[in-house]
Request: fold
Amino acid sequence: MYVNAPGFTPAAIENRNRGRFVLLTAKRLQYLIERHNEYGFTPETIAEHLFEPGAFQDDRLDQLDDILHERQGAAESLLRVIEALELKGDGGHSARDLQNVLVGLRTGEPAPSIQFIENSLTLLSHPTLDLVEKNDEGYKLTTTLQSAEDLLTRFSTLIDDAIDTGS
Reply:
């Protein structure tokens, strides 16, 4: 059960730490709503942090920010995979081929793992996105990098943020 109020006394927080209540101040509720609106995270994404009894403290907010930063990092890496496909051009390419391209770009960040690239290619080739096509030779981009970015930005502002940071 959640209890929302402008604030809580230390005694109320201590008392609730022993119960099954989550104390959520109005300021922290506002933070959650802003993050939901900005990044589109769902309650399921942060459930373990939301449902832990006690007061919703700053350390939980820090944990949520860490989750958002991880998602943004994944979005940046996804865009890097698309960029590698565009740089490789026509033909089929494996995850290892794309990792070599990303290593060669030397962006200052480590290249995504082969497993991440394979997962990204699977996601990007899903019929709902259809940005990548798999054939006997491997994967190839079915659109331009800009078109892929445009499509992906409709899914989340995380992609927008990744583009703005120059990934």
Q: What stands out?
A: The two ends are 41 Å apart (CA to CA).
